[in-house]
């Protein structure tokens, strides 16, 4: 008797419900407002441990290499090294700031957006869900992994839905977007991840 193939394998994307089931619990709102926190979206038990190995504070546990990564949300310092090294592009950082959220994600396409760029926010299924602003870019050449990493500011209600972005082509508009754009996003100093 064979087990049923999970939705994420049949359809090619992880639903929010599958994510919650895989993690057991999400970081609480209080923790999300303190600083960025790592969120592994890796539901399969496969032999892969770069995230655990790179974590400078041992906030990622995997008792054996085939275990799914579990993050100690309180221990996570929000450094994004796990996002940089994950070969499956399955780690993200989430940080709530007022009524906005910042999501740090891997980005493998060209052109790589620049800090301050407005980007199209894409849902887990690839649908356009609004606009956001890039507040941090770690180019591939400076990343510990093989991909660029970007942090995008967006409406807080999209923090758990957006997992990719698209750089609009010259003249491309998204008049159907009802998400607002924070015109001054990225204007502050600091590293752009946790600075207030």
Report on the architecture of this protein:
The strands form two sheets. A seven-stranded antiparallel beta sheet has the order 1-4-5-8-7-6-9. The chain has a two-stranded antiparallel ribbon with strand order 2-3. 34% of the residues are buried. A hairpin with an 8-residue loop joins strand 2 and strand 3. With 196 residues, it is α+β, with helices and mostly antiparallel strands. The protein is built from five helices and nine strands; from the N terminus they run αααβαββαββββββ.
Characterize the overall form: globular
Helical content (DSSP H or I, runs of 4+) = 10-25%
Number of separate structural domains: 1
β-sheet strand percentage: 25-35%
Count the E strands. 9
Number of helices: 5
Radius of gyration: 16 Å
Structural class by helix and strand composition: alpha+beta
Whole-number mean pLDDT? 87
Question: How are helices and strands ordered from N to C?
Answer: HHHEHEEHEEEEEE
Low-confidence stretches: 174-196
Order of adjacent strands in the largest pleated sheet: 1-4-5-8-7-6-9
The profile of the biggest β sheet is: 7 strands, antiparallel
Distance between the termini: 54 Å
Question: What's the structural blueprint in terms of helices and strands?
Answer:
Layout: H1 7-11, H2 16-23, H3 29-34, E1 37-40, H4 50-54, E2 60-61, E3 70-71, H5 81-85, E4 91-97, E5 100-107, E6 118-122, E7 128-138, E8 148-155, E9 164-166
Antiparallel strand pairs: 1-4, 2-3, 4-5, 5-8, 6-7, 6-9, 7-8
